[in-house]
Design goal:
The protein has six helices and seven strands. The N terminus is likely disordered. The protein has a single domain, classed as von Willebrand factor, type A domain (Rossmann fold), CATH 3.40.50. Strands 1, 2, 3, 4, 5, 6 and 7 form a seven-stranded mixed beta sheet that branches. The protein is of the alpha/beta class.
């Protein structure tokens, strides 16, 4: 996989609300990665507007890419006002979602009330065809309170996506969308009218 690997510090500031974008960069979805990145970046201004309604919401975001391996596209989470999806290098014969889940586990276990963390927002963008044993890693994630309390959404990309696998991650069929429905992310945070 031609992406930069960042060594993630063991302890990070996990206060506030963290948004994790888990982005499938494997060969079957290479043709749609650029448009997917553009769609995420186009949605960000609306997400920033939402945070203005919550004076105590300190939102940070980061991208976790996976294909033949997994890595964060930046070494640390970035304030949502400065966040932009960059440094994405698609390609890889495998889709090692389990490795991405293991890296996510290491981050989510640090999100606790004591750390000042709020339940995170997790966004999986994939065709839903992992090539590794993701189920064991997903089961381990489910042991974490921060994962169980997280808002989880999945967006299907590429040819013949497996919505059933994506639903395993979200826990709810309604939280599996097509990639052209990314506006569902800011709507999930919008204050009730």
């Amino acid at each position: 996989m031609g992406m930069a690997f960042f060594r993630v510090p063991a302890k990070q500031d996990m206060s506030g609300l963290h948004v994790f974008f888990l982005l499938d960069c494997s060969d079957p979805v290479v043709g749609v990665i650029n448009s997917t990145v553009d769609a995420v970046n186009a949605m960000l201004p609306e997400l920033r507007k939402v945070t203005a309604h919550y004076s105590k919401m300190h939102m940070k975001a980061r991208v976790l890419c996976f294909s033949s391996g997994a890595s964060f596209s930046a070494p640390q989470a970035v304030d949502i006002d400065k966040f932009r999806v960059t440094n994405i290098f698609p390609g890889g014969s495998k889709c090692e979602l389990g490795k991405a889940f293991d890296m996510l586990y290491d981050q989510l276990k640090q999100i606790t009330p004591e750390s000042g963390g709020q339940p995170p927002f997790l966004v999986l963008i994939s065709n839903g065809h992992p090539t590794d044993n993701y189920k064991a890693s997903l089961e381990r994630l489910r042991e974490l309170q921060s994962f169980r309390c997280a808002r989880r959404m999945a967006f299907a990309i590429g040819p013949n996506p497996s919505r059933r696998m994506l639903e395993e991650f979200t826990g709810l069929e309604i939280n599996v969308r097509d990639i052209d429905n990314l506006d569902a992310i800011p709507r999930a945070f919008a204050p009730a009218p």
